[in-house]
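Input sequence (100 aa), recorded before submission:
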Amino acid sequence: MEDFLRSLSDKERQKISWVLTLVREHQFVPREYFKKLQCTDDIWEVRASFSGNAIRLLGFMDGGKLVLLTNGFLKKSQKTPAQEIALAEQRKKEYEKRRE
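Predicted structure, token format:
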């Protein structure tokens, strides 16, 4: 995740930071910025756009409050890439296994 964030421009990182603050501080966040992905193992998508780039961070909830971000990417098509969802689900399972 850190490598992905470092690959973004300063303005893109600022936009992501703004959206993450919105997600953290508001009980109801517009779907434009934060939504649960259907047909996944409870994977959520943080959504930001800047200069025509669709920036996406995937993650999951822990106890209904904590969002753990697993991976990020620049979205180039309508559908979220299956390999990105699979990576998020794999990292979620690894996290849950470590917590047991």
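Checked by second reader. The mean pLDDT is 94.
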